[in-house]
Design goal:
- This protein has about 475 residues and is an alpha/beta fold.
- The protein contains 16 helices and 13 strands.
- The strands form 3 sheets. A 7-stranded mixed sheet has the order 1-7-6-5-4-2-3, sandwiched between helices.
- A hairpin with an 8-residue loop joins strand 12 and strand 13.
- It binds pyridoxal-5'-phosphate (PLP).
């Protein structure tokens, strides 16, 4: 793109944007099982108005915009009581789950630096199901990740947790629930182990923090995962997920201000304004904060309870379908709206392609650490009106997938990879594989099964190299 010598007209700009986005998934279609949290036009209308009204205000300086302080304090006090916290719980509004997690890990690192200066090489313990954001946080913050396995239900294994703790452990993480399988870790047991050893414990409730208390009120058996559990010292809960705030909305909460203090960054060592940043971002719009505040106020307790009821019914429908289908099985019984299922008789990557070619979006989860590859669907409000059609298409997709050949790209990729170890994974090799997979010139292919099959057999470090090369190949 070049700058226009003379700017385009408003109509021309908007038309160009239409053109650029013509291949995007229609997020309002109700056919995407992930990414979209659509509460319907009425709620979204209020949120959008709030977003735009505050969009131009900066969250950099709450002394200029006291509304930012007031709205954030309202949201944090609501979140603390929603998650069983008392007056001593504090926290911050952030741009998303990943930022909340990075901040919680940073606070743990810096708090422990003060309390345990003897720890020179800090470690954090993550079940294999913990979100990738913790790996990213450890990567950014220079911490060692120690992974532990899961039991038959894909919940963190307690014996492995006990064994993994060392004198260097600064933080243990559990999920409520995990992204891939929608399963809640044994948070009470994990946090008790952490507390006994004087280690901080983070409950990642990015997905479940908002919704699970409503599921409990609807009669579901939801174990404690929040500040009701003694050893839990911090929690992340996203508002841009099941609280339906527009994107850019999450909270990170701490049991005490003493711990939260280590999240805050201030800088007076330069010539500019005195800087206090509670979060990673510095200049940021207060639009998402206002939109989250407005959404919570507008939907209200009764609205969210009704939303939860619908999602619970839709989830039960999918779970029953999978349990009845001779070719499918659940990877684990889900505790929430995230369902993963697999097949021992049909190639699931083909099933995904067949279903997605009918205008749906369902997601592959690759095999990892002995857990078989699966199909993941995150069930949402906008999906609940389309479940019968979806299950019909899923059924047809299985029949079609049964007929398709497997491993077409695998053989060719193996030839390319056989000549090289992980260190030799070059841009050129990636280019070749992508070309063979129909991804030349930044084109996104219709079918992903061939590339998913390749990814599925690669060890994780090689998958990562491939993904980094892929991003590097796609983005200028
Ligand atoms: C359990 C869990 N934690 C953290 C995250 C990261 O959230 P975000 O994508 O908002 O950064 C997600 C996202 O799906 C999640 O499911």
């Amino acid at each position: 793109m070049e700058l226009q010598e003379k700017g385009l007209t408003r109509e021309e700009v908007l038309k160009s944007l239409e053109q650029i986005s013509k291949d995007d998934f229609d997020w309002s279609s109700g056919r995407i099982f992930g990414y979209v949290f659509d509460p319907g036009k009425e709620v979204m209308g209020v949120a959008e108005e709030a977003l735009l009204k505050f969009y131009h205000k900066s969250g950099l300086d709450f002394t200029v915009y006291p509304s930012a302080l007031a709205m954030e304090n309202d949201i944090i006090s609501f979140a603390a009581s929603h998650l069983g916290g008392d007056e001593s719980v504090s926290g911050s509004f952030t741009s998303g789950g990943t930022e909340s997690i990075i901040l919680a890990v940073k606070a743990a690192r810096d708090y422990t630096r003060v309390k345990r200066p003897d720890i020179k090489e800090p470690e954090i313990i993550l079940p294999i199901t913990a979100h990738a954001a913790f790996h990213k946080a450890a990567h950014y913050l220079g911490l060692k990740v120690v992974q532990i396995g899961v039991d038959a239900r894909l919940k963190a294994d307690l014996d492995q947790l006990e064994d993994a703790i060392t004198d260097n452990t600064i933080l243990i993480v559990g999920s409520a629930p995990s992204y891939a399988y929608g399963v809640i870790d044994p948070i009470e047991d994990m946090a008790a182990i952490a507390e006994k050893r004087g280690i901080l414990f983070h409950s990642d409730a990015c997905m479940g923090g908002f919704l699970l208390p409503f599921f409990r009120r609807l009669g579901r058996d939801v174990p404690n995962f929040d500040f009701r559990v003694e050893g839990v010292t911090s929690i992340s809960m996203d508002l841009h997920k099941y609280a339906y705030a527009p994107k850019g909305a999450s909270v990170v909460l701490y049991r005490s201000k003493e711990l939260r203090k280590h999240q805050i960054f201030a800088c007076a060592n330069w010539t500019g304004y005195t800087m206090i940043n509670n979060t990673v971002q510095s200049t940021k719009s207060t639009g998402p904060l206002a939109a989250a505040w407005a959404t919570l106020q507008f939907v209200g307790d009764d609205g969210y309870l009704e939303f939860a009821r619908k999602k619970l019914e839709a989830t039960e429908k999918v779970v029953n379908f999978v349990n009845m289908h001779p070719d499918l099985r659940l990877v684990s019984e889900p505790d929430m709206t995230l369902v993963a299922f697999t097949s021992d008789s049909v190639n699931i990557f083909h099933i995904i392609d067949e279903v997605n070619l009918k205008g749906w979006y369902i997601q592959p989860i690759l095999s990892y650490s002995g857990v078989k590859e699966s199909i993941h669907i995150s069930i949402n409000l906008s999906n609940v009106y389309h479940m019968d059609e979806f299950l019909k298409d899923l059924n047809e997709g299985i029949e079609k997938a049964r007929e398709l050949p497997s491993g077409t790209l695998l053989e060719k990729a193996q030839e390319i990879f056989s000549d090289m170890g992980t260190t030799e994974l070059t841009g050129e090799a990636i280019g070749k594989i992508m070309e063979t997979a129909g991804m030349a010139n930044g084109k996104i292919p219709e079918r992903f099964a061939p590339i998913n099959e390749v990814m599925n057999i690669l060890p994780p470090d090689m998958r990562e190299e491939l993904l980094i090369e892929f991003a590097s190949f796609m983005f200028r």
